[in-house]
Structure formats: C-alpha cells, structure tokens
Amino acid sequence: MEVTSPAGRGAPPPQAQGARGPVASLLRRIKGKLFTWNILKTIALGQMLSLCICGTAITSQYLAEEYQANAPMLQSFINYCLLFLIYTVMLAFQSGSDNLLNILKRKWWKYILLGLADVEANYLIIRAYQYTTLTSVQLLDCFGIPVLMALSWFILYARYRVIHFIAVAVCLLGVGTMVGADILAGREDNSGSDVLIGDIMVLLGASLYAISNVCEEYIVKKLSRQEFLGMVGLFGTIISGIQLLLVEYKDIANIHWNWKIALLFVAFALCMFCLYSFMPLVIKVTSATSVNLGILTADLYSLFFGLFLFGYKFSGLYILSFTIIMAGFILFCSTPTRTAEPAETSVPPVTVIGIDNLGLKLEENLQETHSAVL
Hints:
Elements: H1 14-34, H2 37-66, H3 72-92, H4 100-128, H5 134-140, H6 144-155, E1 158-159, H7 162-185, H8 195-222, H9 225-247, H10 249-253, H11 259-285, H12 288-294, H13 298-309, H14 316-333, E2 338-339, H15 358-373
Antiparallel strand pairs: 1-2
C-alpha cells in the first residue's frame, strides 16, 4: 500500500508553506494591532465628538442663512453659562484643595489665560467665515495639529514615532481630498470681504485651540476633569460676557426673535456643552492630538446633513476623504507615543503626563508580560 507523505498529494510544498507562514503571521499582527477594542472605542468616541461639532455647524448655518442671526459670541456665552452652572458649582461644593476658592487662590491667573485662549479661539474661527472662503478655513484650521504636536513635545513631553507623522500626513491628505471635493461641488464660491484678514483669523484661532487643548490634556491627566470644566466655565462666562457687551450688542438687538431662533441657540449650546463635557474623557484615555485628528471628519458629517438640509452637491471624493482620514486616525492610534519623563514601572499610571493612547499602552504591556510568561 502506498503511503502518502505530508508533502504529498493535497498538501502544498514546503516552500509554499514557508512563504505563506510569514504572510499569515504578518496579517494577524496587523489585525491585532489595528482592530483592538481600545482602538474601536477610541474611534467611536472621536466620531461622537465629530457629531457634536456637526450639530454646532448645522445650527450656526441655519441661524446665519435662514434668520440672518450672526452672534457667535452669544452662542459661546450660553455654552459657558451651562458649564458654569454645572461644573463650577460642583467645584464650589467640593472640600479640601479641590475647592473653587482654593483653586482660585493658587492658579487664578493661569485659568484666566486659559479661558481667554478658549473664548477667542471659538470667536476667531466663527468670525473668519465672514472674511474668507470655506476652503481656506478647512485647510488653515489644520495648522493647529502641528502646533499641538509641538506643544505636546515641549510641555507634555510626548515623543512621537515615525508612524505618527505618517498618520498625520495621511489625515491631512484626507482633508485635502475633502477641499478638492468642495471645489468641484462649488462650495468655495462664497468668498468674504477680506480673505487675508480671514486667513489670519483662522491661523490665530487654530493656534489658540492648540494651546487650549494642550492645557486641557495636562489638567485632565494631572488634576481632574471637573477642575478644567469648572474653571473654563467660570472665566469663559466672564470673558465672553464682557466681549458680548462690547462687540455684539448691536447684532443681538437686530435679531428678530421667535421660538425657532431661540431653539436653534439652545440646540447649539447643548451640542457645545456635550462637546466640552465629553472631550476631556476622550483626551484622558488618548491625547489631544488623537482627538483633533478624529474630529477632522466633522466637516464631512456637516456635508452629509447639508445634502438634505441645504441642497449641497454630492461627490464621491467625500467618501474617499472620509476613508483616508479614518485610515490615518486608526494608524495614529495603533501605536502609543513615548514619554520623556522616567517612569517608575513598566505600566504608566493614569496621571503620567505625555502618555498618548494610554489604553493602548496598558494593553501592549499586558501582552508583553503574557508572552514573557509563556
């Protein structure tokens, strides 16, 4: 009787098995690296923030186009008032060093600067639409990402790897694709009165956003989420209220108020409140850089809603843009950054500054420990 060897009929030759083994192993490693529970959770949280930003964009556009109500500082003021009523009041009733009065005694001037940066970032970006084109805002707003990475390098001691810079480049390529789709769809035709002033506003606003986000990451990871939101609510309310009286009182007086306009203002404030409330939670387990890459899809969500609400033209490039941005975001989240600060243990504590994608770092260390035991 003929005996069939393992390499006989029905089995691939040893060379094929050797070639297939590394490929299959590589695919398994890529799948295990890119499609983990922490990355999927990060993607979901990032897109939830994008939907909040989309809500603010849709309500603002309705107010401007349907009712000629241009009052961006009033919109921000309502949001800061909500933060004040909830988070600042929470700080007032806390005891010990986390009490509102104790925080003000030690760091009042720092939070004034943070509140000023946050308020003016919101104001400059919204005002820029009156001077420059949608295309310029979308492109120049990305200037905040390299500024944010530079600030994270020097302030939070984050150390990026080559894959992170590649991921950022991929995300910016997706933004460029989205801008190209806007040009083909004719959405860039509404140019403002002075493009140069508008472009400068966008650059300043993006830089102030980067400063605010780095401070937020530092406070959330080193101190507490309630302290950040409470102090931003306090000084944001004061600063935006003063600026509201100085520059927007005429615009507010010219609004023909009715229940629809009031409802749109409330909807905008609620979307902004959800964005401010949830963003620290996402930053705590990832980083400010990850969050800013994830919310690049917000303009695309606004476009998809605009197809039905404002009659925008659809282009297949928008789907391509969304795919490219998500690919870059997943690539960035797949590898945690290093920190320049020495750690006492191999597993970083939650309060370590500069740890990007903390959940991924913990998962990576657990896998290495398990492999060593085996």
